[in-house]
Amino acid sequence: MQEPPGVAGALLVVAAAVAFGIGVYAAKGPDSASEFFAGYLLEQSLSVDNLFVFVLLFSYFQVPKEYEPKVLEYGILGAAGLRAVFIGAPPPRPAPAPSHAP
Fold first, then answer.
1. Which of 25, 28, 79, 100 would bridge with 33, disulfide CB 3.0–4.6 Å?
2. d(CA 63, CA 50)
3. Which pLDDT does position 64 carry in this prediction?
4. pLDDT at residue 82, as a whole number
């Protein structure tokens, strides 16, 4: 039985993440390794959630199959651009402390 083309790549990425986590464990200890693996699993679950949303949006808006890669590309570029804006934006100014004048 032959694997689908994306399975080998996905397994390679997961294996690289596990190897990196083992390296974090060796260099920084179990607490840091646990934090890495928790973050990795959270990001993976959010990725699956995003795929579900894309499938719903594509079906709702009836996006033709040939346009799906281009729409995804625009979505990725838009998300990266917005991230850059939010990272580069100055932090909000704190609210002034309330005065307790008699």
1. 25
2. 17
3. 95
4. 93
| pLDDT the model gives residue 102 | 63
Question: 24: which residues sit within 8 A by CB, 6+ positions away?
Answer: 32, 33, 36
Residue with tokens 């990795």: 40
Long-range residue pairs from 85-94, CB within 8 A, at least 24 positions apart, any chain: none
Overall pTM surpassing 0.70 (yes/no): no
Range 32-62 burial, b when 16+ CB lie within 10 A, else e: ebeebbeeeeeeeeeeeeeeeeeeeebeeee
Q: What is the DSSP letter of 66?
A: G
Overall residue count recorded for the chain in this entry: 102
What would the pLDDT profile of 35-68 be if each residue is shown by its tens digit? 999 999 999 998 888 888 889 999 999 999 999 9
How far is residue 76's CA from residue 9's CA, in Å, rounded to a whole number? 20
Query: Residues 6 or more apart from 20 whose CB is under 8 A from it?
Result: 36
